[in-house]
Design brief:
Layout (H helix, E strand, L loop, with lengths): L1 H46 L2 E3 L2 E3 L4 E2 L4 E5 L4 E6 L1 H6 L5 E3 L6 E2 L4 E7 L2 E6 L4 E6 L1 H5 L2 H5 L8 E5 L10 H23 L4 E2 L2 E2 L3 H4 L2 H12 L3
Antiparallel strand pairs: 1-2, 3-4, 4-5, 5-11, 6-8, 7-10, 8-9, 10-11, 12-13
Length: about 230
């Protein structure tokens, strides 16, 4: 009996030593994996790839009803672009026409004219101000917008009017709103195009090609506040 107890005790000690050694070697691996996962999450957040119900959202921006975003830079300088819901609507955009440097804009003036196939849509400015810089790279390579609507696909840098408030949703409220707007757009397209227009939940062509004239005007008015 004593021999059996000694044998069992020896096995338990060996097992405990094995577990301790395994934990000792595994902990650095787990830590590296955890840190790598966190780094990827931070990179996605910085790049504007945080998921908001199927649409990408980036923190630190003000989101407007016309699906433009405004980023404070320094002083009264802001950068302006279009969000991911706008990207879905004007998917396949072939050209961007931006106002030249020195143009003074009023809120509601066209900030950009987008050409989608045979259709052109003008999106209103969310701020009053003076155009300081336009994204020439975007004008030469429109696909930048498709790839990075919150990054290299920005539109303009503007000096806003003194003390002019920037309207728009921010923080968690903007993420919730973008998710709701993305769902509203999905329902809009389903109602007007039906399942026959989609393949596995993805449109077979850009909305500008699939929607008839009235539906296209309704989409751009409802989501982009286009005139």
């Amino acid at each position: 009996m004593e021999t059996l107890l000694v044998l069992v005790s020896g096995l338990l000690v060996r097992l405990l030593l094995f577990v301790l050694l395994f934990a000792l070697f595994a902990m650095p691996v787990v830590a590296v994996v955890y840190l790598a996962h966190g780094a990827v999450a931070l990179h996605r957040r910085a790049a504007g790839t945080v998921d908001a119900g199927g649409a990408h959202w980036k923190p630190g921006l003000a989101y407007t009803a016309a699906h433009t975003w405004v980023k404070n830079l320094w002083g009264r300088n802001v950068k302006i672009g279009l969000d991911d819901v706008a990207r879905r609507i004007v998917s396949g955009v072939s050209s961007f026409t931006l106002p030249p440097v020195g143009t003074r804009l009023r809120r509601g003036d066209p900030i950009v004219a987008l050409r989608c196939g045979q259709r052109v849509v003008a999106i209103p400015s969310p701020v009053d101000g003076l155009v300081l810089e336009r994204n020439r790279s975007l004008m030469q390579e429109p696909s930048l917008f498709e790839r990075e609507p919150y990054g290299d696909g920005w539109l303009l840098r503007i000096e806003t009017e003194a003390h002019a408030p920037i309207e728009g949703r921010r923080g968690a409220a903007s993420k919730t709103w973008l998710r709701e707007e993305n769902l509203r757009l999905t329902h809009f397209l389903e109602m007007r195009l039906g399942m026959a227009a989609a393949d596995g939940g993805t449109l077979t062509a850009p909305p500008s090609s699939l929607l008839h004239d009235d539906a296209w005007r309704e989409a751009t008015r409802s989501f982009l506040r286009a005139g």
